[in-house]
Amino acid sequence: MAGVRNERPTDGEASALTFRPANEATWDDIQAVFGTRGGASRCQCQRQVLGDGEWWHMPVEERAALLREQAHVDDPAASSTAGLVAFLGDEPVGWVAVAPRTTYRRLLGSTVAWKDRNEDKNDGTVWSVVCFVTRAGYRGEGLMYELAAAAVEFARARGAVALEGYPIVAKGDGKITWDEASVGTPQVFAAAGLTQVTSPTVRRRVMRVDFR
Q: Dmax of the chain from CA atoms?
């Protein structure tokens, strides 16, 4: 996956983004994206992995230690990792969590995600995108769209038979808050080739692309 490039216009010029599996990045790269304040720094991309109960009572330091282990940072030979890191030049600017669906206990235990669906939720050949993080200072420039596209390519290359996302939509005429948008929006996933499977609640959608 290293070396995959997308073009993003910045100040009238095309600036190249690259995407690396987290095991080909460093721990400092990931933490630079998460920052030291806000939801990403506190969650450490563990709520979906652990489920609400265990996550809620776990100190941030322990969550971070788990992510570091899951990501296999600085180990390019690792057979699995926790997601992708986006770089603008040498600067880490974004994160997307993408892994086999069975990775995410909170997702597997969700009644919403499985409403009106008849399939084996424990099928590890189906992958999921559960979280996006854009580094402060790089937001509002469409990076989430490119992270979603990179996640699709990554899952396909790693042998997934399908990839799912679980985006949220605005309530009425309101706006989606930054923390809410961490799961993605329908527009982001549609641009990456996913189509809607179900609409289990007023605000939640399940979207999917099948590779076979």
A: 47
Average pLDDT over residues 91-106: 97
d(CA 1, CA 13): 24
How many domains, the chain? 1
Please state whether beta strands 126-134 and 162-165 pair in parallel, antiparallel, or not at all (unpaired). parallel
Rounded distance between C-alpha atoms, residue 36 and residue 85, angstroms: 17
What phi and psi, each to the nearest 5 degrees, are found at residue 88?
A: -110, 100
Report how far residue 127's alpha carbon sits from residue 91's, in angstroms, rounded to the nearest whole number.
27
Q: Is the dihedral of CA 207, 170, 94, 191 positive or negative?
A: positive
- Of the pLDDT bands very low, low, confident and very high (cuts 50, 70, 90), residue 9 is very low
For the cut 70, the answer to whether the pLDDT of residue 97 exceeds it is yes
First-residue to last-residue Cα distance in the chain: 20
Q: What is the mean pLDDT of residues 72-89?
A: 96
Residue 190 structural domain: 4-210
* Phi, psi of 170, deg, nearest 5: -65, 150
CATH code assigned at 187: 3.40.630.30
Q: How far apart are CA 96 and CA 87, in angstroms?
A: 12
